[in-house]
Amino acid sequence: MNGFELEIPTSLRSAVDLLDPDDTSVRVIAGGTALMLMMKAGVFRPSRLISLRAIEKQFSTLSAMPDGSFRIGAMATLSQIEHAPELSKFAPVLRQTLHILSNVRVRNVATIGGHLAHADPHMDLPPVLIALGADVVVTGRKGERRIPVQDLYAGYFETVLARDELISEIIIPPQQQRRATYLKCSTRAAHDWPALGVAVSLGVADKAAHEPRIVISAVSERPIRVDAAETVLNGQQLEPTNLRSAADAAADTIETMSDARGSAAYKKQLVRVYVERALRAAINAGAGTRL
């Protein structure tokens, strides 16, 4: 690795002030699980790193909010999120997802803010948070703004964040008994990225799907919410034929890309199979319902 300066500000505002929007070699480091690998491989050669480890403790905490939402500080580690009982009760799908995300050594260090900002389309939590309707709170020199996670990504390793902005919090709205799940297709090798991820969240009223959210990841440059599949399923009875129709709509409309994990055609078939499986799993998460 090349030599670089290390700054350790004690506040989020100080960290933002240290960012240089005109110098791409200045980078923030949170957990560093991805950034350090990029530096060791020579993909990124920073002139200066700004560590967030000493900023205010509030950005490492998790808490329920008075309006029924749930707040997660951007510096909370993935292990904190995995083992927070109140959050597991609020959105069990997060703990379910974290059990199959990388390994415990990574989860002990990686932060949720860094996980989201890294913008690798193979990451597991972005599609789940999109399905849950979550927002990120972003802090920059011009103040704060709130961005839906589904609008955060612009492309492969690209977000809509300005170079002088940082993710400070994640806000998940009240789930109101919605059912959710996340499935992914991978070899489950320790080094492996998924060929496909599918996150589903839906309400159930009178045995029918209510406002389903279906999100696909890893098959394109960013996580995608599949509007066509949601439209097919919304208001329909929770019957196998309707789930299959939604899965067909997802496979028929989403654009997939070929890579080392499979061809575009193979991934379309994965979408067809896994969307139906994920819908069944989400529905079955409700009391007594089996499909």
Q: Could you characterize the architecture of this molecule?
A:
Helices cover 32% and strands 25% of the residues. With 291 residues, the chain is of the alpha+beta class. The chain has three domains: 5-51, Uridine Diphospho-n-acetylenolpyruvylglucosamine Reductase, domain 2; 61-172, 2-Layer Sandwich (Uridine Diphospho-n-acetylenolpyruvylglucosamine Reductase, domain 3), CATH 3.30.465.10; 179-284, Enolase-like, domain 1, CATH 3.30.390. Strand 6 and strand 7 (143-148) form a beta hairpin. The mean pLDDT is 94.
Keywords:
alpha+beta; Uridine Diphospho-n-acetylenolpyruvylglucosamine Reductase, domain 2; Uridine Diphospho-n-acetylenolpyruvylglucosamine Reductase, domain 3; 3 domains; 11 helices; 32% helix
Helix and strand arrangement:
Layout: E1 5-7, H1 12-18, E2 26-29, H2 35-40, E3 48-51, E4 62-64, E5 70-73, H3 78-82, H4 85-90, H5 92-98, H6 104-109, H7 112-118, H8 125-131, E6 135-140, E7 143-148, E8 153-155, E9 158-159, E10 165-172, E11 179-185, E12 196-205, E13 208-217, E14 224-225, H9 227-233, H10 240-253, H11 264-284
Parallel strand pairs: 1-3, 2-3
Antiparallel strand pairs: 4-5, 5-10, 6-7, 6-10, 8-9, 11-12, 12-13, 13-14
